[in-house]
Amino acid sequence: MTIAAAEGDGSYGAVGTRLEFGGSKAGRVLQRGRSERVDSVLEDPEVDQQAARRLGVRSALYVPLVARGRAIGVVVAHDKAGPSPSFTDDDLRLTESLADRAAVAVDLSERVGRDALARAVAAQELERKRLARELHDETGQALTSILLGLKPLEQIAHTDEDRESVASVRELVVSTLRDVRRLAVELRPSALDDFGLGSAVERLAANFREQTGLAVDLENRLRDERPPPEAETALYRIVQEALANVVKHADASRVSILITQNDRSVAAVVEDDGRGFDPDAEDGDVLGLVGMQERVRLVGGRLRIESAEGRGTTIAAEVPIP
After folding, report:
1. Which homologous superfamily is 25-87 in?
2. Are 35 and 63 in contact (CB under 8 A)?
3. Left, alpha or beta for 312 (phi > 0: left; psi -120 to 50: alpha)?
4. What is the CATH code for 196-320?
5. For residue range 173-213, what is the model confidence (pLDDT) as tens digits?
6. What are φ and ψ of residue 254, in 5° steps?
């Protein structure tokens, strides 16, 4: 849990503080989903006594923010102003009324944010598809035409210098054509739209193996019935980002990819035997983990990251199937 907002005496610097979910009073209230009034925090065994003494608090109200039946946060108030620091039942009811309104506002804000992000991601994928098609159909065909046009030049080249010049141009065009095709696949592989997640990941693994020389084990347990396009796209991008992290950061020698499907969900797991990292200490933006988490959240899924220094990394994503 993270303190998102704080106001009042002793609140300076509190915003951003992380609390252990199961080891804090707020976390336990969130788990139980019901309000609690504490007249003496020093006598409550669930309260972090060291923190309570440091803040100098004596009494508390804990009211969960509940939106659509789901607890999403907790409002905590300490030490009522006045002759007595203890809160009354009326104070608790008033706080619950305010918390109900706050929960609706927070939930609405999150949904608006998710909808905006979903539209942005969908627009990005459409643009990727358009660019990939243009690179493949227009730029690729133009470069192929240039290659065909070099054949007459090769036939009329009489000197070694002329032949070397034509060969140099041919080599440059072939290299550029290869790069264009690779970029088109990275932007949006046609196999993902035409044949589905399994074929796209197989192509991705083959290209990764060819470009890096790393051993790649791929196990495809997908069913014949394809998952929804949004789920396929999200999982493909997560596998793609995970493989990119292996190249940039892992220093691994072997990678395994598993994609599975059952009646309720489809999942992808990427493991490597690299150097690993501390997920709590690492900047998620550097590794693209924030983007992975956002992609999975947009399709109602979940992402699990397991890693430790010197013990490799496992990234597992699961997306529900309606």
Report:
1. GAF domain (3.30.450.40)
2. yes
3. left
4. 3.30.565.10
5. 999 998 888 888 888 888 898 999 999 999 999 999 998 99
6. -145, 140
